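Before going further, learn to read the protein records used in this course. A complete example follows; check for yourself that the lines match position by position.
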Amino acid sequence: MLKKMAWLLPTAALHMACGDEETPNLDNNALMLADPEVFDIGMDPNLFASDVLSQYPDIKDCHTQGLELVGDQIFLSCTLFGTTADRDQYSKSFLLKAKLSEVLNHQGPVAWTRRDITETATVGNTSLPLGHPSGIIYDAKRGGIWSANAVYKALSHTRMTLYHPDTLMPLPGTAAVTIEDHIGTIGLIPDGRLMGMNWDSINLYYVNPGDKSTAADDSLTQIANTLTTAYQDCDTWDDAHILCSGLLKETDGIKYGRLHLLKVDALDTQGVQLVREVPEKRTDGSLRVRLGTADQENTYGTYKLTRTLANEGMAISADKQHVYFFPADLPAGKLVRYRITDR
């Protein structure tokens, strides 16, 4: 079961898992971000030293893909690879977790658990690693974390897998869902099906895993996406909307970060529709919908980096009062939190 698209989770179930906080009554058409905070995640700088690829022994950074919050747990997915030229042959997928409270109250090292979730698949006549995980999403009904692990190449091969949130192992009694494409974003829609977006979010896939133990009754519907933003990670907003972060290449040829509130079409005919571009409210009161510029220095609170805020992982807190971003690589990347407001 693969995943690079973290989206939807039934809101009530998420609240049950994370507490009984009252959800603020926010106007979807006036949502905005404010008051950025930055957190050091306290990860061991040598966490991936034992996992380096033999072809690239000096590369010890793991490229972040997805972010999810479940109760007092924070989950991340990432890919370890050598060069762009041969990453389809040499890459590894990882799933990690830690206590969110320890990250937010960081006083020193944080205990992170990691698991190599790389599998292999035969594509053509070649055995290739499923070394690129997707954005991740918690499925309360099925009791696990979904990740879409793909060959690190567009139009390739993906296996959607449901992982146990405690062990980070495939959830017993479940079967993976295979899609002949590279799925980069994954999520849940209210009726329990998965929705996956491929590389650059050109196509959407509605996936019904059927029962949990076999693939025989899985169903799949593919439709073209009418939106042009390449979404990286999504999370549930309510029973009709999802919040997705990603990159939009504008007419100047530059990619800018975006956070979009999308309406979900459960009938598989129109895909997703843009409801609002969620802007950042700056200290002078002005708004900006461009959440950073690719390959240029950006500032988010006290954090400076040459990536957009929406570059990779994104998740919403259970009470919908905050949205979290993780735009940089592990182990040195930082967690960025914005307050969600409509004023």
